[in-house]
Each structure stands twice: as structure tokens, then as C-alpha cells.
Amino acid sequence: MNIPHSYDTIGNIVILKFPKGTKPADKKKVANQILKERSSVKTILEKTEKVKGRLRTITTKFLAGEKTKETIHRESGCSFKLNIDTCYFSPRLSNERLEIAREIKTSDKVLVMFSGVAPFTIVLAKLAKPKRIVSIELGRECCKYAIENLKLNKLLNMDIEILQGDVKRVVPKLKEKFEKIIMPRPQLKETFLKEAFLAAKKGTIIFYYDFEKEPGLILDKIQAQAKKEKKKVEILKVKRAGEIAPYKFRWRIDFKVLQ
After folding, report:
1. What angle is formed at CA 162 by the lines to CA 158 and CA 165, rounded to 5 degrees?
2. Average pLDDT over the chain, rounded to whole?
3. What is the pairing mode between strands 78-83 and 70-75?
4. CATH class of the structural domain 90-257
5. Which of 138, 156, 168, 249 has the largest CB neighbor count within 10 A?
6. What is the C-alpha separation between 201 and 179, in angstroms, rounded?
7. How far apart are CA 77 and CA 121, in angstroms?
8. Orientation of helix 94-101 relative to helix 119-127, angle to 10°
9. CA angle (1 as vertex; 36, 31 as ends), nearest 5
């Protein structure tokens, strides 16, 4: 049996997704084949349920190798420790993290919403070295790993704050504005643009992620919310940042707050 086309590698764990009806014996065969062919892989898991809930977690089943769901993923000279089942993490956003890091200045104060185990925060801190980073994450487990990852990447000497809680409740309590706001939103109905505008000032650049067939619908959302908040915005960039389903894409819209 061939290795499925749909799989992710996070650290030394491979997560497979099989077609419906695949026999357990065939799944084990594929898992053992991967372990044999890839020495860097230590654990094979099967994704048994789609990403779900506000924390966007997945459910996996152990197939072969070392029986663990905790791993350390490495990219761009950074390390991210996490549990596959309790913390959402996308290795497919590695280029996005690098690209945004290039847009950050050392004088910037940066807000990262939906920060997870802090991959965006850590890449920005190590590569761009901004003045300050505030990260907001709803999941307690993710925040625990985020703090551990700051230690792992030797970033405790930088001005980085990890805040656990709902963006809707945390942002209104912040007593500062930011030059850059990164919104790697999970696939939820709520846009959270109201909170982004609340944390922005004139000249702030927002990197906003959303999921649609085409970007026009997202641009309409941004303009509508800007009007509601009595803000003017300038669209700087529209980028397709991955396909998440047939004819459904992750888009990144970069825009500047003009007033």
C-alpha cells in the first residue's frame, strides 16, 4: 500500500490520514514502512477526527513507533515543543512566519493573536528582534508550552508577554497600541477585526488570515468592519497561503490602518 498523500510531519511525529475503509493491517504496514524509510521519524499517528472546537484541536490514534504525542518541531533555527492532540500547530505556515518576520522592525511593538505554542512569536523574536511582543492564546495547555518554548529558545531576556485568555476579553484590557498585529486566525466564523482595530493606531499594519474560495469576500469583511469602527485602511497585499480543502484556501491580507 502506498503512503497517503495527505500527511503532516511535526517534529519526529508523522500524522497520517487514510481514505475511509482502509484496513487496520494496511495502516500498520504504511506506518512501519515510514519508520523504516525515515530515520528521523520516531512516532506514527493516525488523524481520526477533523480539527474541531474553539481550540482547533485534533484527535489522533497511535499506530507505530514510540508511544508519545509530545514532540519538538524545528524550523528556521527555532524549536517548538507541543502535544499533538492538545495544541494546534501547522508546519505549513513556516514560510508565512519567515515572510512576516522580514516585515518587522526592531522598533516595533507586535501583537500576536491566537498564538498557540508561540511559533510566530518565537520566529519574530529570534529573527526580527522587535522592541516588544504580546501573545494572546485561549488554550491553557498551549500557553504552558509557549512559556516553555521561550526558555527552550533562550528568549527570556526579551520583552515577550504570553497572555492566556479570549482575544475579545484580553485586547480591551491592553493599555498599549501596536505597530504590527499578526492574526493567524483559526477557521472560525468570528473575524476578531474589531479587536484588531482596538489595538491598532495610525500606521499599524495588520496581517490577517481568513478562509474562503476567493479573497474578495475577505476584503469586503475588512472594509465593512473598518467602516463600523470609523477607520480607513489601505490593502497592501493579498496572498494565497495554502489550500485547506478543494476550492477553499487560506488567504493572508496585509493592510495598513490609515486613521
Report:
1. 165
2. 93
3. antiparallel
4. alpha beta
5. 138
6. 7
7. 13
8. 40
9. 35
Q: What is the pLDDT of residues 103-135, one digit of tens each?
A: 999 999 999 999 999 999 999 999 999 999 999
Look at residues 253, 178, 198 and name the one whose alpha carbon lies nearest to residue 220.
Answer: 253
pLDDT of residue 19: 86
Using alpha carbons, select from 205, 163, 197 the residue that is nearest to residue 181. Answer: 205
Give the start-to-end residue ranges of the domains of the chain.
7-68, 90-257
Alpha-carbon distance of 209 to 214, in angstroms, equals: 13
Q: What is the DSSP string of the chain?
A: -PPPS-EEEETTEEEE-PPTT--HHHHHHHHHHHHHH-TT--EEEEEEEEEETTTTEEEEEEEEES--SEEEEEETTEEEEEETTTS---GGGHHHHHHHHTT--TT-EEEEES-TTSHHHHHHHHHT--SEEEEEES-HHHHHHHHHHHHHTT-TTS-EEEEES-HHHHGGG----EEEEEE---S-S---HHHHHHHEEEEEEEEEEEEESSTHHHHHHHHHHHHHTT--EEEEEEEEEEEEETTEEEEEEEEEE--
What does the block give as the cell for 203? 500606521
The rounded distance, in Å, linking the Cα atoms of 104 and 83 is: 29
Q: Which residue has 504580546 as its cell numbers? A: 134
Average pLDDT over residues 35-56: 83
